[in-house]
Amino acid sequence: MRRISILHANAILYLLIACISLVYWPQLRWAAEHMPEYSRHGIAPLAEWSLYGRARKRLAEPWNLSVARDLLERSIAIDPNSEAVYGLGEYYFRVGQDEKALQQFRTYLAIDPTMVMAYLKMSAVFERRNQLPEARGILEHGLDYFSRNVEKYRPHHADDVPTQYNQKAVQVFSHYRSAVGALRREIERIEAKKSSTPLGTVHE
């Protein structure tokens, strides 16, 4: 029996890959264009995720906040763009260090502007300082972002788009639509509070 050389085997393999690529080219092109936006920050080193997960639990325990900060800083050391950047802002918010909290939230929004909680937490910092115009301003900034992008990710049926990608689109669209609703409700609450606050007590 004649043996197939390694060169021939590689040629057959490359030809097979080329054929598969041609057959699935529309799906591959769609994934290349859209999936980076969908899956951004969806993959992180296991060590970083483990540290951040432990930190999230400690943040809910007032007696363990210092432990939470240590875990968050270690997580950020592994991945400076991880969600732990937001988590560190939440730590500073809980201990009353407003300026540092705002800095962390701003930093994370530059990394991931889809984190609706960062807008809400920044607004909460300003509200705590009785800076209601600033509190509303950051909410409106977030609302503008999500309102402009929500229709971009509205799921639509397309024969050349794999089902799993449409399912991901549904998840993204749902997140954006929920964010729009949450931000609008918070703006209404801030506006109502501003209207009921005696003149001169709101810091402009």
Structure characteristics:
9 helices; flat; 204 residues; mainly alpha; 2 domains; Serine Threonine Protein Phosphatase 5, Tetratricopeptide repeat
How would you characterize the overall build of this protein?
The chain is an all-alpha fold and 204 residues long. It has two domains: 43-112, Serine Threonine Protein Phosphatase 5, Tetratricopeptide repeat (Alpha Horseshoe); 113-195, no CATH class. 75% of the residues lie in helices and 0% in strands. The protein has nine helices and no strands. It has helices at residues 6-23, 25-39, 46-59, 65-78, 84-94, 98-111, 116-128, 132-150, 163-196.
Brief summary of the model shown:
By secondary structure, this protein is mainly α.
Percentage of residues assigned to helices = over 70%
Uncertain stretches of 5 or more adjacent residues:
37-43
Q: How many β-strands, per DSSP?
A: 0
The structural class is mainly alpha
Give the count of helical stretches.
9
Largest sheet: none
What gyration radius follows from the Cα positions, in whole Å? 23 Å
Binned strand content? under 5%
Order of helices and strands: HHHHHHHHH
Shape: flat
User: What is the residue-averaged pLDDT?
Assistant: 81
How many structural domains in the coordinates?
2
Q: Alpha-carbon distance between the termini? A: 88 Å
Write the layout of secondary structure elements.
Elements: H1 6-23, H2 25-39, H3 46-59, H4 65-78, H5 84-94, H6 98-111, H7 116-128, H8 132-150, H9 163-196
